[in-house]
Write a structure and sequence with these properties.
Layout (H helix, E strand, L loop, with lengths): L1 H19 L6 E7 L17 H9 L1 E7 L5 H10 L3 H4 L18 H6 L3 E5 L15 E2 L14 E7 L33 H30 L6 E7 L14 H4 L3 E4 L14 E8 L3 H8 L25 E5 L9 E5 L3 E6 L18 H10 L5 H4 L8 E5 L17 H17 L8 H7 L5 H6 L5 H12 L6 H7 L5 H14 L7 H6 L6 H13 L4 H10 L5 H11 L10 H5 L11 H14 L1
Parallel strand pairs: 1-5, 1-6, 2-8, 3-4, 3-5
Antiparallel strand pairs: 2-7, 6-7, 9-10, 10-11, 11-12
Helix pairs in contact: 6-9, 12-20, 14-16, 15-16, 16-18, 18-19, 18-20, 19-20, 20-22
Family: Belongs to the sulfatase family.
Pfam family, one: HEAT_2
GO molecular function: arylsulfatase activity; metal ion binding; transferase activity
């Protein structure tokens, strides 16, 4: 007992000594809003009502070029908490809980070990197995006020009032503060009453978010901590109406970022108060930058680059981003952004942008947009969302902030296209991107090892896989002979992407028909499903639908989701699979029941 008491007393004395010896350690406060692009007055939005954040910008540094790595919360938050790029970890898909290597720690744990009090209020959603030891407190009641006297803190407050879900239930027009008839719509949105209402209601919620942020800042000042605390405000991804959140444009990836340094820590600030900077910053850079501010050594495994503190490095040239599966819908894209141009590579260009996604369609604006499409009342810009994607997209973000003029085929921008295409390719290799593994395979691999370890094991032929995926997504018929050759490759991931190439080429892939029929018996279920999709494009029905229907009995949920995504496209032709689809509707879908959500949509298509 005496030894225990002595140990506790020694720990307390050491702890007190740590705090006494660290008067220069700054407190760090994160105010994180959800699902909003820079819809703030300080970013030039004259329709927004955001006095508190506008004032914070006058007191701090406003970043023009801050980017989420993913246009949706869970993969984006995975980046923030790990300092790693999710396609390197296998945590890119929305949502998933694939494990990360033991050496990857949620970065607040390093703060705790350095004597900080760490709190999270309250959202986590880190897209992997939780690490609760990262926090002293994580709950709706978590607060820095519970720390010991003199103890520095790292505190996160998540404001969910601007989350996508807030527009699912319309507020009566006469209760809105922002006038739907005056709200500025982006050119890709039709002027439907529902669209205007959703936008106005969203601006109201951004105003409320600003009020809540102001209350947190006021509380900090009342506690006498404003002069000892570096304050960050940012959003977890862009948003929130259709073609923003979940999509690879500025509207989905560019986020507001404001950082206020008190005078005491002015030496840590990269510029004076009231400065607007064009420095490129991504969520990959946040974890190392926080550690740098607290003078904690940055772990070598982190892929981000510190842009603040003593360990900051040269500004990055490019901001990288990604999109994988979004809930029940399979898709796959990568993007590179420099200070002027955004390049997007769509590896599944045969998937239309507007794949029906249950949660997204809960916003009244989405069905109204679809209604206008079906009625033929959309202009060319508004129509593109309902069409297949090009393999490559290139936008001048200065002249075209809404990303509606694709320059990828313009000869004047050929050099820009080639430069950013090469930057994307190099990063896929450097980051060991495991996202090219179809998720049915990926989920099986994750049962026995981390995907990061698998990528380093020598079993993943990354360069050949990426080469095949780039060839497959190019829509170039001249690649068909090589694609047909790779349909017989020993690597299932290479075979999968070769089949995707035939899916994309549609009727032009007719010479591959015999091999595709053979692949209906491939040992890898992802390849069988893809082959069925290709054969459906070539006019076959019975065997492909039978293959897809059998896939619905698989224990692999991601295989079921893949098959359902194909069945949903073929309407009444999917009828032979009806019983197997219906068997998936055991209950209302919960988080993660993406096969159930997809099955509901397939049945709606069959039963029309």
């Amino acid at each position: 007992m005496n030894r225990i008491l002595l140990s506790l007393l020694t720990g307390l004395l050491l702890s007190t000594t740590v705090f006494a010896q660290q008067p220069d350690k700054p407190n760090i406060l994160w105010i994180v809003s959800e699902d909003n692009s820079p819809f703030l007055g300080c970013y030039g939005d004259t329709f927004a009502t955001t006095p508190n954040l506008d004032n914070l910008a006058r007191q701090g540094i406003l970043y023009k070029n801050a980017f989420a790595t993913a246009p949706v919360c869970a993969p984006s938050r995975n980046t923030l908490i790990t300092g790693m790029y999710p396609p390197s970890l296998g945590t890119e898909h929305m949502r998933s809980t694939y494990p990360v290597p033991d050496f990857v720690r949620f970065f607040p744990r390093y703060f705790r070990e350095a004597g900080y009090y760490t709190t999270n209020n309250a959202k986590k959603d880190y897209n992997t197995t939780d690490q609760p030891e990262a926090w002293d407190e994580s709950s709706v009641k978590a607060t820095y006020k519970n720390r010991r006297p003199g103890q520095p803190f790292f505190a996160v407050f998540n404001l969910n009032v601007s989350h996508e879900s807030i527009i699912h239930t319309p507020i009566p027009n006469d209760q809105l503060k922002h006038d739907p008839e005056k709200v500025p719509l982006p050119p890709y949105h039709p002027q439907t009453p529902e669209m205007k209402h959703d936008w106005a209601q969203y601006y109201d919620k951004v105003e409320e978010m600003d009020r809540q942020a102001g209350a947190l800042l006021e509380e900090l000042a009342k506690e006498g901590l404003a002069e000892n605390t570096i304050v960050f405000y940012y959003s977890d991804n862009g948003g929130v109406l259709g073609r923003s959140k979940r999509f690879m444009y500025e509207s989905g990836l560019r986020v507001p970022l404001i950082i206020r340094f008190p005078e005491k820590y002015a030496a840590l600030a990269p510029a004076k108060a009231g400065t607007v900077t064009d420095r490129m910053v991504t969520f990959n850079d946040f974890a190392p930058s926080m550690l740098s501010l607290a003078d904690i050594k940055i772990p070598a495994y982190m892929q981000g680059k510190a842009f603040l503190g003593k360990q900051q490095v040269r500004e990055r040239d490019y901001a990288y981003g990604f999109r994988g599966r979004m809930d029940e819908r399979t898709d796959f894209s990568r993007t590179v952004r420099d200070k002027k141009y955004r390049y997007i590579r769509n590896y599944m260009p045969h998937r239309i942008y507007a794949q029906h996604l249950e949660y997204l369609w809960k916003a009244p604006s989405m069905p109204s947009w679809e209604t206008e499409f079906k009625a033929g009342r959309l202009n060319d810009t508004q129509m593109k969302f309902w069409q297949e994607k090009p393999a490559e997209e290139l936008f001048d973000t200065e002249k075209d902030p809404h990303n509606i003029h694709n320059l990828a085929d313009d000869p004047k921008f050929r050099s820009v296209l080639l430069r950013l295409r090469e930057a994307n390719h190099k990063w896929l290799i450097e980051s060991a991107d495991v996202g090219f593994i179809p998720e049915a395979m990926l989920s099986t691999i994750a049962e026995t090892t981390t995907l990061h370890a698998y990528a380093a094991s020598g079993k993943y032929e990354l360069k050949k896989v990426i080469e095949t995926a780039e060839m497959a997504s190019s829509r170039d018929p001249s690649t068909l002979p090589e694609i047909i050759k790779r349909l017989s490759d020993k690597d299932a991931v290479v075979r999968y992407w070769a089949v995707i190439g035939t899916v994309i080429l549609k009727e032009a892939a007719t010479p591959a028909k015999a091999k595709l029929n053979n692949l209906l018996s491939d040992p890898e279920i992802s390849v069988r499903i893809a082959a069925a999709e290709a054969l459906l494009n070539l006019g076959e029905t019975e065997k492909p639908v039978q293959t897809l229907s059998e896939a619905l009995k698989s224990k692999n949920r991601m295989a079921r989701v893949q098959a359902l995504n194909v069945l949903e496209k073929i309407g009444d032709k999917a009828r032979p699979s009806y019983d197997n689809v219906r068997s998936l509707l055991v209950s209302e879908p919960k988080d993660g029941d993406y096969d159930v959500r997809a099955a509901k949509q397939v049945l709606q298509q069959i039963e029309k």
